[in-house]
Amino acid sequence: MNLRGNTILVTGGSEGVGFALARALVDHNRVIVCGRSEEKLRRAQSEVPELHTRVCDITDANQRGELLSAIEHDFPELNILINNAGGGHPVDPLDPAAAEIALHADMALNFTAPAELATRLLPRLRARPRAAIVNITTGLVYLPKAELAFYCAAKAALHSYSRSLRWALRGASVEVYEVLLPLVDTNFHRGRLPQNIPAISAERAARLALKGMLRGAPELRPGKSALARWLDFLAPRRGLAAVNG
Ligand SMILES: NC(=O)c1ccc[n+]([C@@H]2O[C@H](COP(=O)([O-])OP(=O)(O)OC[C@H]3O[C@@H](n4cnc5c(N)ncnc54)[C@H](OP(=O)(O)O)[C@@H]3O)[C@@H](O)[C@H]2O)c1
Question: Ketoreductase domain location, by residue (predicted)?
Fold first, then answer.
């Protein structure tokens, strides 16, 4: 995949992995980042003034529609969507009230919104001579964590959708990438970064993801994500025990 001369939308690009991706891409591409917090977007733009920013909660259908209309108007040449925004609610999946909230919120953010953005942008992307959809998922797709049951299930859905889309688009101008990230030290963990597994930095996660895309590898499993896949295959119970501490 050529990472120069593109117009790229990075959802959740105001901090963490999304911001690291945006920062790494902005020298040779036009990059638009979105997020819910205007303050975080302002901070991101003050560090990287070339970024274009847009406030948008991608789980809100109206805001998603406004984002797409703004892009159509301001950046009709958009050719890469990076579905990065994500997050999970840690809950006891056996607690009905808490589970109900996490189920809807985690599916909306980690599956419905990225799949909807991809679906709505696809006609436009298919008209470009080269284009890509990049879905950021997790090694927990293979070995889910019980307290993030709905987040893991939503990412597993995005993993499955990425594979279907790649198959449906074979031979077309739109490439489909999936980056199954390992543990990354970001605000995702809200100060509770698991200590039983080594974490990589957001900058390293972005570097590894972009290196893989440059190579044209459709499914990237940096760091411990590759191990998670093999553990699931060879010793799933041991793998689940390791992930669930
Ligand atoms: N950190 C990890 O260990 C890890 C591991 C595997 C996979 N991942 C995946 O990597 C991706 C990036 O995670 P991260 O660690 O960089 O998280 P992060 O540091 O918490 O950043 C999340 C970004 O998404 C934005 N965001 C959250 N909810 C949003 C919404 N409803 N609408 C629009 N933007 C929203 C946030 O901005 P606002 O808060 O302003 O909206 C922020 O810019 C996610 O898909 C995550 O699932 C992370």
Answer: 6-183
